[in-house]
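Fold it.
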Amino acid sequence: MEKQFIEIINTHQGLIGKICRMYTRSAADAEDLYQEIILQLWKSFPRFQQASSVSTWMYRVALNTAISGFRRQSRSLLQQELKPEVAGLPATDASRLEVQYGRQLQAAIQSLNKFDRSLMLLYLEEKTYQEMAEILGIAVSNVGVKINRIKKQLKNILNA
């Protein structure tokens, strides 16, 4: 069982790392959250019945751990800095505008409640509505409604 668990973690560690970076501000906080997620995955591993895919199970446990209050309320989403230069080339005016818009979008997403942030993370990861519903424990029909409401909310925030 331990060997199987380690193989699963090694295969899907990027998924856990991405969630950690999205829900923390510093590398130390991300590392703490990573360890907490691994612990929760280990605790729930014996109950994993493979009714869903491994990645769906991992997303659900990782998001629940991140949302559950492991961190203080002030933790934020999408802390990866957008770089104005790529491959050492100077940023153009257009890319500067993209960076500025990206930062505004990050701030808008940060203003969402934790559940909506989780849903947007899955949406941006291009998960299917079915996968999002399974991970978050909501009806598939509710996923589309919530995404549309969140998009409108983000649009209003960005246009304010």
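The chain has a mean pLDDT of 78.
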